[in-house]
Design goal:
CATH superfamily of the largest domain: Ribonuclease Z/Hydroxyacylglutathione hydrolase-like
Number of strands: 12
CATH class of the largest domain: Alpha Beta
Order of helices and strands: HEHEEHEHHEHEHHEEEEEHHHE
CATH architecture of the largest domain: 4-Layer Sandwich
CATH topology of the largest domain: Metallo-beta-lactamase, Chain A
Radius of gyration: 25 Å
Structural class: alpha/beta
Number of helices: 11
Helix content: 25-40%
Distance between the termini: 101 Å
Bound molecules: zinc ion
Length: 327
Amino acid sequence: MALAFEGGSSFLLRMRRRPVKSALIGFAILLLVALLSFAWTFAPIRLDVPQIDVGALPPAAPPAAMSISALPTGTYEAPAALAFRGGSWSEKRAFAATGVLVRHPKGDLLIDTGFGRNVERQLKLLPSLQQSPHHLGRPVIDQLAETHADTITAIIPTHAHWDHISGVDDLHGIPVLVSDAGQRFIDSHGEGTEVLNSFRDVSYRPYHFDGASYLGFPVSHDMYGDGSVVIVPAPGHTPDSVIVFVNLHSGKRYAFIGDLVWQMEGLTRPAEKPWMMRLLIGENRSEIRTDIARMRAATTLYPQITAVPAHDGRAFSSIAIYPASTR
Ligand SMILES: [Zn+2]
């Protein structure tokens, strides 16, 4: 009986262990599936984009004196794998933080400011995950001669994120142009607006998308009325994101597309940002996809347009660095 009892107790023990073992196997399988699914979000899957009719090339009559210059203010490093699906983990990309000076007889403009003098202090306002290690070069204010800074009549941020508006803090008194969506986003004090909202006495100047459709974008705003600088809404990365088209007298055209894509491959492959990055930023996937389609269609049909993602240094290669300029 004793033996029978012992046999019975070890049988009961085995019965108790079996569910534990099954649960462990189930958990391991779930973990493996989760890991594989996560890895898949970085896989080189081509982004499926819709066909877009971008219409005729919009007319532009830029003055001969108009020019643009790049103002590189620094870089931060990230693996290509975090920039677009299919990027390599071993390939480090130097993300550019570059402002663009547009010189126009009716008043100069600055598209994005890159890193300002106080970028270190500003970064501490962000969640630690977003405090990217970076290399600070020369802020815009230090690159521009004092006299030249005075000629800037407005700053057009492609969106309100720190790496695009950090230098606003150095350029006191120069109005920051914001659309209605831009003002709503800034006033929401939502994630991504911490740095801009920490600046004192920013003078916002509203503008409205009062113009016709432009290269597939439903509305536009013509800065000078001559078609040389035209802003279109491109929400998706953030609700306030815009694309700034700059058309030069020579016939060269540029589209400063902000963070629609982080590197050229986003447009050329096309490839979206990895799921994890889109989630962290809170991007609207469908809007991004449509805007990538619009930019691909526009640059394919009209090769005189160069699309410039704000963080791809290669995209700036045809733009002279200040004080030189491209006409
Ligand atoms: Zn950015």
